[in-house]
Amino acid sequence: MEWTFTDDRPIWQQLTEQLTLRILKGEYPPGERLPGVRELAAQAGVNPNTMQRAMAQLETDGLATGSRTAGRTVTQDVNAIEAAAADRARAAVSQCLRTLEDLGYGPEKILVFVKEELHHD
């Protein structure tokens, strides 16, 4: 697994986002046991405490459940995963629209761009 980090946000937030994306894409399917904190920390090249914070955030976000004895697993609530994916998609569309509006484009031209990209080979 490839881990990438930038200097603009805390590492634990970037870890949370990358783990979330992997869950949403199905790399970690519903109900699957997640690798341990130490294993993931070693893969990512980060401190285990930093990875622990990211994993705890996955639980807070409802994408993982934890057990002291069994470790963490991806939630089996497919609706929660689908809702998180839809939220992420809406946020991406919203950001794109803000960028296009900042460039001075109105709704009609934005739709033209979207249609062109949808039909782009």
Description:
With 121 residues, this protein is mostly helical. The chain has helices at residues 11-24, 37-44, 48-60, 78-102, 107-118, and strands spanning 64-67, 71-74. A two-stranded antiparallel sheet has the order 1-2. Strand 1 (64-67) and strand 2 form a beta hairpin. The chain is elongated and about 55 Å long. It starts with 10 loop residues before the first helix and ends with a helix. The relative contact order is 0.12. The mean pLDDT is 94.
Would you kindly provide a brief summary of this structure?
By secondary structure, the chain is mostly helical. It contains 5 helices and 2 strands, in the order H-H-H-E-E-H-H.
List keywords for this structure.
121 residues, mainly alpha, two-stranded antiparallel sheet, 5 helices, 2 strands, elongated
User: Helices and strands: which structural class?
Assistant: mainly alpha
Percentage of residues in helical conformation: 55-70%
The secondary-structure element order is HHHEEHH
Q: What's the average pLDDT?
A: 94
Q: What is the CA–CA distance across the termini? A: 29 Å
Number of helices: 5
Q: Cα-atom Rg, whole angstroms?
A: 18 Å
So what's the overall shape? elongated
Number of strands: 2
Q: Biggest sheet: strands, sense, closure? A: 2 strands, antiparallel
Unreliable spans: none
Tell me the strand order in the biggest sheet.
1-2
Q: Tell me what portion of residues adopts beta-strand conformation.
A: 5-15%
